[in-house]
Batch of 3 targets.
Target 1
Amino acid sequence: MHAQNHRSQQDKNTTRWEALTPMHVCLVLDDESVASKLVSALDAANRHRITVLRDIGELNQSNLTPDAILIGVQQFAALRENEPMTYLRLSRRSRIIVVLSSRELLDAAHILAFADAWVFQDINADRINELIDLGLEGHCLMPKQFLSRLGVDEIRLSLLPRLSEQEYETLRLLGQGLNNRTIADRLDLSEAIVKSMVRSVLSKLHFRNRTEAGVFAARQQGALEGSRKPQARAS
């Protein structure tokens, strides 16, 4: 019993020492205002040793192995594609937490699986200390709006300016359940051009297929129509 109590006290002392040991957090962000916001939040917690770097080139040359790396999504993509050995070295010894905006979620979905956690600068950056703790344990706090169909719809609606006028009309007509030939007749275009525009719409708004695009367009018919009204008035 005495040995067990002694071991328990040792565990408490170790935990207390670990809690007092500052974690090394490295920031590699594209946006200086976002970096400043995160540094302020980290400083307020008074728990971290912070290093701010300009880009992945500087990160690579530094040979740092911090506890956590907060990295912008574009920098992370470049790290994965251009510096694979550096990525492997860092991912073995550090937790990599990608910082992005909610609007970038669909664009970055293919690469986010390679990160340990995500922080959305426009939604939960104020909880950065909590998010780092979760990231160090291999967890990620996903904003609730992304767990619903309508939350993903909101992201896609924010991406509508990517579409040309003809692509927008194609999406709207997909929402009516029309096939390519009928859409071509409605828009006075060739069927081949419409087929190309459907592929473009799927790519730009990250739909898996035309059925998914059509369901979205039908569900968001009012929002789709409203998104083009200011343009019509301006012209």
Target 2
Amino acid sequence: MKKAVNLSLLIFISAFCFSQNSAIEYYKSALINDSQKDYTAALHDLDNAIAQNPNYDSAYCLQGFINYKMGENKTAIKLLDKAIKLNPNYFDALNGRGIVKAQIKDYIGAIKDFTRAIELNPTKPKPYYNRALAKAHLDDYKSAIKDLDKSISFDPKYTNAYYSRAFWKDISGDYAGAVADYKKVIELDPTYREAYIGLATTMYQHGEKTPACELLKTAAEKGSIMADELVTKLCN
């Protein structure tokens, strides 16, 4: 009788431990499937993880990200809402929801989410960059540039931030600043074809045709179809 009781206890403990760990295992499997772009399998894994642990905020967050990749933006927001409800200080979920809101052109909502993410972690460069993009869509270039200044201050090699700042500096009339930022992008990443095109078009508009055409030819040599078309249009 004692052995039977002990055996029953052992089975109970084993089952309990499995249920405690299985949600994590499903989540790990989802991460692998997500990395391989097998989104259906990843979502199935996450459904299982949530079945084991209905309060698994990371599982809801990852589900949200995957739905965003699949173009299911409304579903993505609902899932990220759940993750944030479970964990109001969830940096990744807030930043991610901001990205999805910007995708559906809810720029004000996106800015609010990015601002909250910045409050939670003020030294992360990406929320500043993301907020700058949202602000720029509202034509608030001055504030967008300030956000990019912050983003670059925390990541001096953030090429996308330099590129965006160059574009909006040019629109704002800061020709010298735009040129300097485009050149910085090329210095950091010589394969960044869009930076050659951006610098070239900026210089061309300011009467510097010869160096602009040389830049366009360089971008064309690096495989840019747009640069090749601009060479034909502007440089012959």
Target 3
Amino acid sequence: MIKYSNEEGFIKPIGIKFKEGQDKNIKLPQVAVLVFSHHLYEDVIEKFQCKEVGYISNTNFDKNVYILKYKNSEIVFTMAGVGGPNISCDIEDLSACGVKKFIIFGNCGVLDASIEDCSIVIPTKAFRDEGTSYHYIEESDTIDMNPKYIDVFISILKEYNFDYKMGYTWTTDAFYRETKEKINYFKNNGAITVEMEGSVIASVCKRKKLDYFTFYYAGDNLDCVNWDERSLSGLSNIDKKKEVMILALEFAIKLI
């Protein structure tokens, strides 16, 4: 049982944390890019001008938060926490420090074999097969996603000659419990992807009145007799994934 409460949380987000010598009163830029791949995260830090300004602590590990300079614009940049509880805390802590618009992206599994490896998927609705979102908004089977900015993002995809598909996603907590029965159920109800954070991102941002956009690059294929890993491994097809990273940065500067 999950009991929903409309009250504000007893524990308030305190924002990012700081190392010795860092500015504890910093107000972050309003637009943030969060990426789930640590390979892409590290590649950006190496290639671009990134100033470390603090860190997010997720109980048993820390991840740095940067102000990234891209084409003379400043963007918050950090690695996204995997799973509903982690990504909800990321959004809570960054918004407490001034972030108002979130671009969050990463890999997804596909429930439609025609979706090519590393192609872009824009989710428009999520099935809420997880727990965190039910603490942010009232119970429902689905939640609409990406209410803003789809046209802006599609214009960037066309500029960079990226194929894309739009459709429903299935957000689940337990990837080892993605059974054939569930795959068929969600596919038959319109889902074309499966991932672990979509409905949570939408729910947290809806409750907190934050703007967001989340999208995926296609990875493993579940629309087959036996699971097909395709480019799920982080370094597999990495050059194409690096191009997706540029899409997110180009998108971010259009939202500033």
